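Worked example 2:
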Amino acid sequence: MRNIHILLAILTLSLLAVACGKDKAKDEGKPADATMAPEMKPEAATTPPADMPAAPEGDMPAADMPAAPEGDMAATPPADAAPGEPKLVCTKLIPEELQKKHGLTEVKDAGPGAPPRVMNCPFKKDKAGYSINIVCPTWDEATFKKTMENGKKSMKGAKDIAGLGRMGYLGNISGINMLQAWDDDTMCYITMSGDDEAFMTTLAKDYFANLKPETLQ
């Protein structure tokens, strides 16, 4: 599970770095692609996490920056949300009825993240470990779309998932199955990791059906 959490942290950090690089390019009057982090080719998806590009210093707002993973990422309580910020709580994002429907256990708030806009929710299904990392960044739609497209390109064997939010796809990074999707009711996206792709797809659709603006308050 520790490796899965670390990969989630790196993938989230990489996507945030790409989006922030685009914002910086706009500020300097340069083409966005000139300052974006280099796109990861599918065949490079199996490279060690240490080789992935780090976020540029000073570019990323503190609230968007996921904290570096530490140890086994023991559960920590979410920070209080500032006025107008979403408060992400795993047992609210994955409520009891959803847990019972899919046979989920041990749902908890955990790192990595910079609450209130980032939260990782590990859980178990039939003793197998899974995790849903949700991020609600302050991006415009163009930045969001470009960042999600880059996330898809970074995965090996990525394939689209029909009917999952505004954009959803499954792929593989360093031998771990990853599902990534952009919600259609909120400006949030999720990254789910685990073994069973069919289960992950079904759960993601129910997760998004539950995810409403009021769920984040």
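The helical segments are 2-28, 90-93, 96-102, 141-153, 197-210. Residues 2-216 form one domain.
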